[in-house]
Amino acid sequence: MADRLVSYDPRNLQPVGDVETTSPGEIQGIVERSRKAFRTWSALGFDERKQHLLTFKRTILARGEEVAEMVSRETGKPTSDAYPFDVLTSLNLIDHYARNARKYLKPRKAGTWPYVSTQGWVQYEPRGVAGVISPWNYPFFLSIIPTVSALAAGCSVILKPSERTPLTGQLLGELAEEAGLPTDLIQVVQGGGEVGAALVDHVDIIAFTGSSAVGRKVAEAAARRLIPAVLELGGKDPLIVLEDADLRQAARAAVWGGMVNAGQTCTSTERIYVVDAVHDEFMVELDKALEGVSAATGDRKDIGPLIDDRQYEHVRRQIDEAVAAGARLLRGGRTLEGPGGHYIEPTVLTDVDNSMPIMQDETFGPVIAVTRVPDEDTAVELANDTRYGLHATVWSKNRARAARIASRLRSGTVAINDTAVNFVMTTMPFGGVGESGLGSAFGEEGIRSYCIAKGITRARTPLPTTALLGVRFPRRRGMAYWKGLARALFRW
Ligand code: NAD
Fold it and tell me: What is the 137 CA–ligand 1 centroid distance (Å)?
C-alpha cells in the first residue's frame, strides 16, 4: 500500500488531512503520460489555450474561498492574507498569460546584416514536459506561477507541491480537472525531496521555487541532464531609508514587509539601513508601526506561527546567537507557547553588524535588524554585501536619487517607496541574482523560459548567402578577398 503524507495545521499541530505519496519509481510513467498531453496541448492554437486558461481562472475564482481556507489551514496564515496573496495573485497571473501569451511568443524578425541575401526570424516553441517544484509559504500562487507560465507557453506540467502543503497542491489538481483542462495536462505528484529529485531526472525543464541550498542541488541535477532550470530561491532583502523619506510610510512598509506571514516570505524585509540624520525619528515610527502586531492568530494585527519545528529552531537560533554576539533586542524576541504551534514575537534587533549570520543568512521569520549608516553610499555598500539579491527597497522622496540607488543595488528587483509589490507585477521580470536564483518569472521573460528560441533563416535569392560569398568547395576565395571584405564592412 502506498504511504500517506499527513498535513498539519501549524497553529495547533492538528492534522488537516492526508494524501497518497508518489513513489519515485512512478515518475517515469507519469512523465510519459505528460508527454502525450503535451503533444495535444502544444498543437492547440493560442486561442484555444487561452479559452482553457480563462476557464481555469473562473473555476479558481468560484472556489477561491476554499483555496484560501486550505492555504490557511496548511500554513497557519489568516485567510485574509491567503486570499489576496494566493488566490487574487493567481487569478491575475492566469488572466495575464491567457491574454498575452500570443504577444509574448509572437515570432520576431531578426536583422541579418551583413548577410543581406538571407532573411531570419525567431520563433518560440514549447520545451515539452515542465516539472514544477514548489514551497509551502505561498503554496497556491507559487505553484500557479510556473504551472501557468508553462501551460501558456504550450508545455504540459507535473507539479510537486511541498510536503508541508500537499492538500493545496491536490486542490490545484482538482480545480484543473473541474475546469476541463485536457487529461494529464497538469498532474500532481506528492512527496518530499526524493520525489522532487526523481522529477528533475525525467522532465524537459524544471522550475524550482524554494531554498538556495535545495536550489543548488536541483541546478546540479539539471546540469547533469543538460536541461534548463528556472530557480526562484531565498533572499536577505535590504530596505534603505534616506533623509528625505516619508518615515511613517517607510516604517509601516518595513513592518508589513518583515512580519507578514511571520516573515516567511521570499521578499521579506530582513535588513534595514537608515541614514544617521533620520535614524532616531525612524525608530520612533517603527515602534509605532509595530504597536499591537503580535504573534498569535485571530486579530487583524496577528502574524501567525512559524511553519514547523525546523523553521522555528532556525529562527530561534539566529536570534539567540545574534544577541550572544552583541546585538541588542529592541523589541520582541520571545517564543510564545501557542496551542501546539511555534510562535515568535515580532522582533527588532539593533547593534548588528554585517558579518553576523543574522545579517548574512536568510532568517525567514518575524525578525528585522536595523543598522544606522552615515550616508547613502554606505547604505548601498552594506545592502549589496550579501550572497543573495532577490528584492530591495529604497525610500526617498527624490525620484531621481531613488532611481539612481535602485540601479546601484545588486538585486533582481527593487521597489521605490513601497515593498514587495514586484512580487505581484505580472508584466515585468521577477527573479534573483547570486544565491537568490537564476532566470525570471512573469512577463515575456517568464513565459519564454519554457520555450526554445528557435532561429530560422531563409535565402532571399536563388543563390544562397554561402554561395554568394563563395563558401563552397572547392574554395575560390583567398586571404586577400576576406581581408578586403572585412575592411570594407568594419573599418568604420
Ligand atoms: P525547500 O527548498 O526546503 O523545499 C522546496 C521544495 O523542494 C519542496 O517541494 C521540497 O519537497 C523540494 N525538495 C527538497 N529536496 C529536493 C531535492 N533534492 N530535489 C528536488 N526537490 C527537492 O524550501 P521551503 O522550505 O519549502 O521554502 C522556503 C524557501 O523558499 C525559502 O528559502 C524562500 O526564500 C524560498 N522562496 C523563494 C521564492 C522566490 O520566488 N524566489 C518564493 C518563495 C519561497
Answer: 9
Answer yes or no: is the C-beta of 222 below 6 A from any ligand 1 atom: no
Is the per-residue pLDDT at 278 higher than 70? Answer: yes
pLDDT band at 1 (very low <50, low <70, confident <90, very high): low
Q: Is 266 a catalytic residue?
A: yes
User: Ligand 1 within 6 A of 135 CB?
Assistant: yes
Average confidence score pLDDT of the chain: 97
CA–CA distance, 73 with 166 (Å, rounded to integer):
11
pLDDT of 2 higher than 80: no
Which pLDDT tens digit goes with each residue over 291-306?
A: 999 998 888 899 999 9
pLDDT at 287: 97
**Ligand 1 mean position, distance from CA 136 (Å):** 8
**Domains parsed from the chain with CATH numbers:** 4-233+441-452 (3.40.605.10), 237-427 (3.40.309.10), 461-490 (no CATH)
Ligand 1 mutation target, pool 195, 208, 266, 318, most atoms within 8 A of CB: 266
Q: What is the pTM of this model?
A: 0.97
